[in-house]
Amino acid sequence: MENNIMAIVMAAGKGTRMKSKKSKLVQKIFGKEVVKRAVENAKNAGVNDIVAVVGYQKEEVMAVLGDTVKYAFQEDMMGTGHAVLMAKEYLQGKKGKVLVLNGDVPLIRPKTLNKLIEKSIENKEYATLLTAIYDNPKGYGRIIRDEGGNVLAIVEEKDTTDEQKEIKEINAGIYCFDIEELLSALDKIKPNNAQGEYYITDVIGIMNKKGLKTGAVVVEDNTEILGINDRIQLEMLTKVLQMRINTEHMKNGVTIEDVNTTYIYDDVKIGMDTVIHPNTTIKSDVEIGEDCEIGPNAYIREGCKLANNVKIGNFVEIKKAIIGEGTKVPHFIYLGDCEVGEKCNIGCGTITCNYDGFHKSKTIIGNHSFIGSNSNLVAPVNIGNETFIAAGSTITDDVPDYALAIARQRQTNKEDWNKK
Ligand code: UD1
Ligand code: MG
């Protein structure tokens, strides 16, 4: 869905609770930074015009986001309302809706964002926020509703009365605003609260006082709106994402023997009837065909492409490896920067020596070749079709089709040597 609306991602905060030298927004979940996930979620919801508000470690945050967004700068971190105000120049003179997102809420589904936008447009609401019902709402802003269920205001944890603390409905930090009324309300927020900050959440109360309609969408899946504020939450979100991705692959016909020890990053394609054994990590940008067997204890890194019926066994690490149909890579092997043909057998202990300390070089192996155990393939090197590499060889020269290559010291037996 293409939306003609814009988004502001608040990404200027420090994240003190993370206890890190790095901003919490550049912490990674499955290899991808928290803030990058937040931005991609908006893009996947069809919002392309995105402004990121940056401040603390802005160079690092900008290095992550690059030119995928425009930037607004917040010099003093005076709260989320103040952060949005920093993007004023991008909002002024515009009509329509703006999505405002906490940069530290990375697992929101694009379809949930679309639901928020749609409700906001259909119900003609000036502010629509995303909420959730939490058994333990501690730390989050609470949603105040009237008897009729209308949203009146958001109260931050630190500003709640004892009675308000009991409210289980919390603010996710994700909003859809009418641009003009947002700008007008932002001018009215004051730092009269426990933290002495300008809160974006105060906009809701201000709009209500003005008689403008506001509303909320209660999220169905609570895990979508988990925020990352400390390392415990970082682990929690990693688990959530792990289960989400694994479930998706299982629904598509992949057998995962142990979802708890299988770590599949984003952007991985796996064919039907492939079996993933425990303790396997598969990084982004990997394609695996049908009827493959992976693991246990396999590490499939970025850029790998496996055809159908490939076996990657235990303690095997592969990187940027293109592997042909029916090839077996059964145990204790490193293959990096290589192309392997069909129906090859790569013996135990084989290593592609792809790095000379300066450059990465390629190893090419043809179809139906047999690489004996403990072979070192010193790249760049070309091994033909139907070849046979003797076990223990260090291959530095190309091997022609149908050849046997032996590249090792001959054995000498010193008779009776051990009798002395
Ligand atoms: C915020 C909400 C709270 C909600 C929670 C959901 C406010 C006042 N409170 O609280 O109601 O339940 O999110 O996760 O908004 N940021 C800036 N500049 C600032 C301050 C913050 O850019 O001056 C950014 C942070 O980097 C972060 C986001 O805004 O990405 C939210 O800030 P954070 O301090 O995490 O707010 P919470 O206390 O979690
Ligand atoms: Mg937060």
Largest sheet data: 13 strands, parallel
CATH class of the largest domain: Alpha Beta
For the record, the CATH architecture of the largest domain stands as: Alpha-Beta Complex
Helix content: 10-25%
Overall 3D form: elongated
Strand content: 25-35%
Number of strands: 31
Question: The CATH topology of the largest domain, please?
Answer: Spore Coat Polysaccharide Biosynthesis Protein SpsA, Chain A
User: What's the total helix number?
Assistant: 9
List keywords for this structure.
single chain; 420 residues; alpha/beta; Spore Coat Polysaccharide Biosynthesis Protein SpsA, Chain A; UDP N-Acetylglucosamine Acyltransferase, domain 1; 13-stranded parallel beta sheet; 7-stranded mixed beta sheet; 9 helices; binds uridine-diphosphate-N-acetylglucosamine; binds magnesium ion
Structure description:
This protein is 20% helix and 30% strand. The chain has 420 residues and is of the alpha/beta class. The protein has two domains: 5-225, Spore Coat Polysaccharide Biosynthesis Protein SpsA, Chain A (Alpha-Beta Complex), CATH 3.90.550.10; 252-405, UDP N-Acetylglucosamine Acyltransferase, domain 1 (3 Solenoid). Strands 12, 13, 14, 15, 16, 17, 18, 19, 20, 21, 22, 25 and 28 form a 13-stranded parallel β-sheet that branches. Strand 8 and strand 9 form a beta hairpin. The longest helix has 21 residues, at 231-251. The chain starts with 5 loop residues before the first strand and ends in a 15-residue tail after the last strand. Magnesium ion binds next to loops.
